[in-house]
Specification:
About 35% of the residues lie in helices and about 20% in strands. It contains 10 helices and 17 strands. α3 (about 85-110) packs parallel to α5. The radius of gyration is 20 Å and the shape is globular.
Length: about 350
């Protein structure tokens, strides 16, 4: 199969390119190589055809789609960002870029799409109240966070909640601009599927880590921020109390999920023609942000983490995945061991 990977020079995209090549696919990588993301020229896997261009440019996208059978859409501006001044860039990169790509795919008759989505579409994860059952807590208030009350209460009675695993049936509840753009990408792709009869797999990545992560920036993930601090001889600074629950999944497992999804959109099966089906991509093991920081500190033989009590309003408290749908429908399972992955990540070069 001839596959276009948008964002193919990026952290996740480059691993997807490698996995596709290893599986015997022909790969074309499209990447804008924006200086904010790639201040130095990244290397691309040997064997991939590389095009430098912006997914927001219709002529570039039309050329990149020539002869292509399927698309893995990884290109996006990621992370929480700095403030609302980032909103136009997020919407332009993520939503306009996706719209341009989908329009070009419709014209070219390409009906197979794997979309890189994110756990952020859920907002907070799954919570259960002893008296009210499964509930959706509202956003945490600045006052509560300043007072060290990090757990979201039941919206009905204020009781403490039990955090659980979120599955794909949960309603979207984006809590920041980046999250809103990822929800929009899914809605645009679903509309594309209904209009053209395409099959779309939306892979909701949980916290991805591994080799070739970018160095810490305001748009970086927590693993990158901790790793950059340790590389500078500084302890990782952990927000809140460090007990935030997450699912940390290795980038090679994410790449293998893309392969499984690509196969699924290629024929009739769990993804019907004219529809989008979402899949959580996680390790299946719940860990805390504090555990991640300590694991990296040990792997780097660096200073122990410092729990600061600080917070960011756009962050959620707990978000962990049920990847049962991906495991059962697409016969996927994670293969990377967490401790081994931390050791590899501790010694791996990070992108500038």
């Amino acid at each position: 199969m001839h596959v276009l990977v948008t964002g193919g020079a990026g952290f996740i995209g480059s691993h997807v390119v490698e996995a596709l090549l290893t599986a015997g696919h022909s790969v074309r990588a499209l990447d804008a190589l924006l200086p904010a993301v790639h201040p130095t020229q990244p290397g691309m896997p040997e064997g991939a055809e590389c095009i430098t261009g912006d997914v927001r440019d219709p002529a570039t996208v039309a050329a990149a789609l020539e002869g292509v059978d399927a698309v893995c859409h990884q290109a996006a501006m990621v992370g929480l960002g700095v403030d609302l001044d980032d909103a136009p860039d997020y919407v332009g990169c993520n939503d306009l870029g996706t719209a341009v790509l989908l329009a070009a795919m419709a014209r070219a008759g390409i009906r197979r799409l794997v979309l890189a989505s994110s756990m952020v579409v859920y907002g907070e994860g799954r919570y259960e109240c002893p008296d009210h059952g499964v509930v959706a807590p509202g956003p945490r208030t600045p006052t509560a966070l300043r007072d060290g009350h990090f757990e979201p209460p039941c919206p009905h009675c204020g009781a403490d909640l039990e955090a659980g695993l979120v599955d794909e049936t949960a309603a979207p509840d984006p809590r920041n601009v980046y999250a809103a753009t990822k929800v929009t990408q899914e809605y645009l792709s679903a509309a594309f599927a209904r209009t053209t009869g395409a099959r779309v797999a939306a892979l909701r990545y949980h916290n991805v880590y591994g080799p070739r992560m970018p160095r810490a920036t305001p748009y970086a993930g927590v693993a990158s921020i901790f790793r950059s601090a340790l590389a500078a001889g500084m302890p990782p600074n952990v927000f809140e109390d460090g007990a935030q629950r997450r699912d940390f999944v290795h980038v090679r497992d994410v790449a293998s999920a893309n392969l499984a999804a690509l196969d699924a959109v290629g024929h009739e099966g769990p993804i019907a023609s004219g529809s989008l089906r979402a899949y959580n991509v996680g390790s299946g093991t719940v860990r805390t942000v504090g555990e991640l920081a300590l694991g990296l500190s040990v792997a780097c033989d660096g200073p122990r983490p410092i729990v600061t009590g600080g917070f960011r309003l756009g962050d959620v408290r707990h978000i962990t995945a049920s990847s049962l749908r991906l495991r059962t429908e697409l016969d996927w399972s994670p293969r990377e061991d967490f401790a081994a992955g931390m050791a590899e990540f501790a010694g791996a070069a990070m992108r500038s």
